[in-house]
Structure formats: structure tokens, C-alpha cells
Specification:
Strand content of chain B: 25-35%
Number of strands of chain B: 15
CATH class of the largest domain in chain A: Alpha Beta
CATH superfamily of chain B: HUPs
CATH architecture of chain B: 3-Layer(aba) Sandwich
Number of domains of chain A: 3
Shape of chain B: globular
CATH superfamily of the largest domain in chain A: HUPs
CATH class of chain B: Alpha Beta
Largest interface: A-B, 113 and 100 residues
Number of domains of chain B: 1
Number of strands of chain A: 22
CATH topology of chain B: Rossmann fold
CATH architecture of the largest domain in chain A: 3-Layer(aba) Sandwich
Order of helices and strands of chain B: EEEEEHEHEHEHEEEEHEHEEH
Oligomer: heterodimer
Chain lengths: 397, 260
């Protein structure tokens, strides 16, 4: 497949030139020309008023002509830490249950290094089947054995969709599995749905540094693999009486060239705090300097809240990474989120948009943060916040 | 010790904006940089070389202009640079990218491969572990400290969600590194001179003996169906007026919602 300009249709209006993220469109003899920098991102297709930019489909077969229809069922990888199932696994069951009901297939969970008791929990939270391997080699997370066993299970049972949490564990070993089983893998999805006609999984994730969303699909490969950010999907329904099968998986020939010598816990109070408090006051580039956070702290303390930050503020060195909210930081959903001087890159939005109430304070009325805000205040935060602090103090008296 | 550092040239994405009318990206005049995490990978490679002796080769795949990123790496002190560039590589997703890079690494040979934990334009964190899978060597992600390298093994600290693990691996190994690992050095004057003169190897499909069906868009399992700007909430309230008026409005709303 490639992208080309239909010279008969092109009027030379140059509309398309600035749409290309790769600077791959140039003018040649008064017509647009797509050069070798093209990455086939298709951004330009919709910008041409004449419809002169076309997608040229090749007839060459994809390298793995696997029969897509051989693959059935939805799997979620249930992550455990010290034998206990991590809560993201229940969120995956919630998302997976919806997809499996739509496709009319079973929902299965894969659990390594844990017990039958924990496997029962997965069934009560929505799994029809649990593939359980209780071999002690899986107690501690280790990429190679995890990837080996999951790959071999996928090859034997052929699920059409396999999901994992976008945790350090999921993000580390899932790519290894995808490479092995020749599967498409979409990282950090924020929404999943099904195209009923093709049974393709429509995977939505932030793209291009998080300023825009993209829908990704894997038309010719199975399984379709995706990681999902913790705290984005809702947990399924818990039913004490739900029944399911536990299938014990044997492990032969599992080996590892890496060994986990020790595990050191170092949970920062801030991380726990950010995900539990009801109010977060967050600052971005618009603060202008590190001192701005002192003002935010005053507001946060007044409302029994905590301080958060955008990636821009963290990158500037104004505040520690542990405060970062967004795709590469924490995902939070407090009752009230106050975004101060944060423009609202999708990167940030995916980490906080499920908050109940969002207040945005920004000088620029066109800042994207206002698109998702419940309430927006257009103005200088150094004028607004002191006033807000004063009024809240008055209310409290 | 032969070390390969994989880097990616990325747009300085903090500056990328969407044209609200057309929903497309505005990327004019946005500078390209070496992916910030890869700077830490380069520094790690150079430090290992200085301690254990050996060579550092920097490898990237991209359009011809990615050569600039390689020259920057040479200025920091790497010994050799390879650019994988071919029309056939265009449109690669992480699967096809990792396959292509792994073919080049096989040709070069290495005891250790170092990558940044992820690139800031895609944020997938997939290419490192996928390269390791294609090479059938172990990998350790999110390395925050290299404790010891002895003969044919390495001990590192791996950052986890709730602390860190101490992990030992045999060599060859692929590491992906986080920012805490080190502070990248600035290029020296001598390095800058070397970067100007350096010969950059440019390899295409034929040079790495890759299976053409596994390259570029054809070799990529994933497809971008469409891109879109997030929609605005319909029930939002944007206040205008003097700061006092806006604050009164917001305080009333918050009282109504029992937030105050």
C-alpha cells in the first residue's frame, strides 16, 4: 500500500502541504508530490478538497495469511503481585465481558503464579474460564517465562483478542508475546469496541505524543492484542454464584536467562495519595515557575486535596515525577480536579478525564482543556487562584 | 564488549498542536530531536564502554533526515553509526520496526543492546522487548541502575509499579532504560568535529537480508483506521467576565454540587 497524488485531480492549491507530520509532501511542477519520507499515516487524505490524494492498495499478501476465523474467544491476562490479583485484572474482565457478549464468545482469564482461590475470584468477576498455572517459577514477574507460557497457550487455544493491563508488567512482556505469535499490539488503549461485521477490535489510544486520538485495528492478524491503562475501564459485575471452569496448565520446557534476585517495595506516599484523594489541584506550563506550586498547595490544603502536575511542569523540573498525571504518569479520578495553567494535551487528558468535576483555569480560551472541563475560568491563574482561596476561606467561616 | 544503542528521531512533541478546523496536525517548524529516553540509553552505552572497554554503535531506522540524530550521537562519543533507510520500511508499526532493527543487529553482532524505555511520539514501549524476542535473547525493561557486569552476566535494578526488582541476566541482553539511570553528557568539541566528518553507514533491505513481506506497512499487523481530536463535552460551562464575577459563579456552582 502507498499514498499517491492523482495528478489529474490535483489543482495545486497546496492545502495538503502543512497536514503532513513527516514533511513528505512537496510541490513539483505545480502539483503535489508525495516523496520518500511518507510514512503512510493517511493524515493528508482528508485535507485535499479535490480528493486527489489516494490510497493505493497492493495485492501482495500479508506475511502471515493466518485464517482469522480460526481464532475465537477473548482472553485477559490477570496480573498478580505476591499471589494476589491486581485490580486492573478486574477492570479488564469488565471490558472483556462487554466485548465477549457482543461477539458471543467465552471470556477467559490467564493467571500465572497464583492459586485456585484467586482464580475463583476471576470467575466471580466475569470470567467463564481461567487458565491457571501455579508453578512457582511464575510467582515473581519474569519476562521470559511469562512470554513463553502465554505464547504457547495462545498458539494452542487461538483466542481472537488478548488484553493486559498497561502496567510495568504488561508493557514489558506483552510485546515479547506479540513478536512471537505475529500479533498486532496496541499500547495504552483508552477505549475498546467491536466492528461486528469484521469482528475487528477497534482500539482507541492517544497518538503523536498524545495530542490526538487514533483508532487502531489489526485486520489480517489474530490474536489482536492490546494493553489497557489501569483505572480507565470499569470493573465488571461481581456475582458470588457465578460458575466457571478452572483449567490447570502444565509447564514443560519453561526456562529463563533472567532471574529476579530480590523485590524491593518502595511505594511512594504521593502515588497512593494522588489516587485516593477527592480533590487534586494540578499545575502545568502556565504556572511559569516552580514557585507557582506553592500557590496551588495553599488551595489544595484548603480543600484537603493533593498537588498534581502535567508532563510539561515535570519536564521543566518544577515538581517531581511522582506528581505527574497523564499517559506516562498516574491516572486519577478524584471528585474534583482543578487544572491550572494546563493546556490539555490528550496525553494529560487520558490521565484525568474520568474525574467527576473538572475545573480548568487558563488564559487561552481556545486551550483544549476547556473541551473536557465541567467549568472553565478564562484568566490569569495568579489573579484567579488567590481570589478563589479568599472566597473559599470566607465560605468556611 | 560490543554495545548497540537504538535511537529514534522524534518531533519535539510538546509543541505539536491540532488545527481545530481541519483536525490535522500542525507540525510546521517543529524541531526534531533524539528521543529523550534514548539519550539515557546512549549515556548508558558510553559508560559501559568506558568501564568494560569495547565499541558503541548507534542504530536508527527512519527517513534520510534521521542522519542528523546519528551525528548528534557521534558527537556524544559513539564509535559507529548505522541508518536503516529504505522506501520499503515506510509505514512500519512496532512489529515491523522491531523485525527490521533485529535484522540489522544480527548483522552487526552485540553483547548488549540498549534502548530508551519508550519514544515520546508513540509512547508504546514495545520496540525494545520485541527486538529481544526476534533475536531470541533476554531483556530487562525499565532499568534504573546497572549494578554489576561480570564476564557474561549483568545485574540491574528494574523499576516496577511498587518499587524495584534486582534482576540478573546472562549476556547478550537487551535493556530498556529510564531517566533515573544517568544524566546524558553534552557533546564535546572533539566529538562535534568527529560528527561532522563521520561516515554514516546507510543500509537498505538488501543489506540486512530481510524478508520483504515482514517490512513496512505490508509487514505491520496494525493499521491506523482514523485519527481524531477529542470531542468537547456538551454540558460544560465556560465563564467569562471579571475574575470576581467568574469566581462568584464557580463558588456558587461548587456549593450547589456540595463541593464546598
Amino acid at each position: 500500500m502507498s499514498i499517491a497524488v492523482n495528478i489529474d485531480k490535483c489543482t495545486g492549491c497546496q492545502e495538503c502541504l502543512s497536514s503532513c507530520p513527516y514533511d513528505a509532501i512537496e510541490m513539483r511542477e505545480g502539483k503535489a508530490f508525495i516523496n520518500e519520507y511518507c510514512q503512510i499515516c493517511m493524515t493528508c487524505l482528508s485535507t485535499c478538497p479535490e480528493g486527489a490524494i489516494e490510497e493505493i492498495k497492493d495485492i501482495t499478501a500479508v506475511h502471515q495469511p493466518s485464517t482469522v476465523t480460526d481464532f475465537k474467544g477473548i482472553w485477559i491476562f490477570a496480573e498478580q503481585r505476591e499471589g494476589k490479583i491486581a485490580s486492573v485484572s478486574y477492570e479488564l474482565l469488565g471490558a472483556g465481558r462487554k466485548l465477549s457478549d457482543e461477539l458471543n464468545v467465552d471470556l477467559s482469564a490467564v493467571l500465572f503464579g497464583s492459586s485456585e482461590g484467586e482464580a475463583q475470584k476471576l470467575i466471580r468477576w466475569g470470567a467463564d474460564k481461567v487458565y491457571l498455572c501455579d508453578d512457582p517459577i511464575f510467582e515473581k514477574f519474569n519476562d521470559e517465562p511469562y512470554a513463553q507460557l502465554l505464547s504457547s497457550l495462545i498458539s494452542s487455544y487461538k483466542p481472537e483478542i488478548v488484553l493486559a493491563g498497561a502496567t510495568t508488567i504488561g508493557r514489558s512482556f506483552f510485546p515479547r508475546v506479540a513478536a512471537k505469535v505475529v500479533a498486532g499490539l496496541t499500547a495504552d488503549c483508552t477505549s475498546l469496541s467491536i466492528d461486528k461485521e469484521t469482528r475487528n477490535l477497534l482500539q482507541v489510544r492517544p497518538a503523536f505524543g498524545g495530542n490526538i486520538m487514533a483508532t487502531i485495528l489489526c485486520p489480517n492478524h489474530r490474536p489482536q492484542m492490546a494493553t489497557v491503562r489501569p483505572r480507565v475501564m470499569k470493573k465488571g459485575e461481581y456475582r458470588e454464584d457465578r460458575k466457571g471452569d478452572i483449567i490447570h496448565v502444565k509447564t514443560d520446557n519453561i526456562s529463563s536467562r533472567t532471574k529476579v534476585i530480590d523485590t524491593i517495595k518502595e511505594v511512594s506516599d504521593i502515588a497512593v495519595n494522588l489516587q485516593e484523594v477527592e480533590v487534586i489541584v494540578s499545575g502545568g506550563r502556565g504556572l511559569g515557575n516552580a514557585k507557582g506550586f506553592e500557590l496551588l498547595k495553599e488551595l489544595a490544603e484548603l480543600m484537603d486535596g493533593a498537588i498534581g502536575a502535567s508532563r510539561a511542569a515535570v519536564d521543566e523540573g518544577w515538581i517531581s515525577y511522582s506528581r505527574q498525571v497523564g499517559q506516562t504518569g498516574k491516572t486519577v479520578c478524584p471528585k474534583l480536579y482543578i487544572a491550572c495553567g494546563i493546556s490539555g494535551a490528550v496525553q494529560h487528558l487520558v490521565g484525568m478525564q474520568s474525574s467527576d468535576i473538572i475545573i480548568a483555569i487558563n488564559k487561552n480560551p481556545d486551550a483544549p482543556i476547556f473541551n473536557i472541563a465541567t467549568f472553565g475560568i478564562v484568566g490569569d491563574l495568579y489573579e484567579i487562584i488567590p481570589l478563589l482561596i479568599k472566597r473559599i476561606k470566607e465560605t468556611k467561616q | 564488549m560490543d554495545i548497540i544503542v537504538c535511537i529514534k528521531q522524534v518531533p519535539d512533541t510538546a509543541e505539536v498542536r491540532i488545527n481545530p478546523e481541519t483536525g490535522t496536525l500542525i507540525r510546521e517548524g517543529i524541531p526534531s530531536i533524539i528521543n529523550p529516553y534514548d539519550m539515557h540509553a546512549l549515556e548508558a552505552g558510553l559508560q559501559i564502554k568506558e568501564k568494560e572497554r569495547g565499541r558503541v554503535t548507534v542504530l536508527t531506522m527512519g527517513p534520510p533526515q534521521a542522519e542528523a540524530a546519528l551525528r548528534e550521537a557521534i558527537a556524544m562519543g559513539v564509535d559507529e553509526a548505522v541508518l536503516l533507510t529504505d522506501r520499503a520500511f515506510a509505514g512500519s508499526d512496532t512489529w515491523a520496526t522491531s523485525y527490521t532493527l533485529s535484522k540489522a543487529i544480527k548483522k552487526l553482532g552485540a553483547d548488549m543492546i540498549v534502548c530508551g524505555k519508550q519514544a515520546i511520539d508513540g509512547d508504546t514501549a514495545q520496540v525494545g522487548p520485541e527486538i529481544a524476542a526476534f533475536l531470541n535473547i533476554p531483556h530487562v525493561s525499565y532499568v534504573r541502575r546497572i549494578e554489576e557486569i561480570t564476564g557474561n552476566s549483568i545485574r540491574v535494578q528494574r523499576l516496577m509499579d511498587e518499587g524495584y526488582d534486582i534482576v540478573e541476566s546472562s549476556l547478550p541482553v537487551l535493556l530498556t532504560v529510564v531517566k533515573e539511570l544517568n544524566t546524558p553528557r553534552l557533546p564535546s568539541l572533539k566529538g562535534k568535529m568527529a560528527a561532522k566528518k563521520a561516515q554514516i553507514k546507510k543500509w537498505g533491505v538488501a543489506d540486512i537480508q530481510a524478508d520483504e513481506n515482514k517490512l513496512g506497512l505490508n509487514g505491520s499487523p496494525t493499521r491506523v483506521k482514523n485519527i481524531f481530536a477529542p470531542e468537547a463535552k456538551s454540558d460544560r460551562k465556560i465563564f467569562r467576565g471579571t475574575p470576581e464575577e467568574q469566581i462568584s459563579a464557580i463558588v456558587n456552582e461548587l456549593k450547589g454540587l456540595k463541593c464546598l
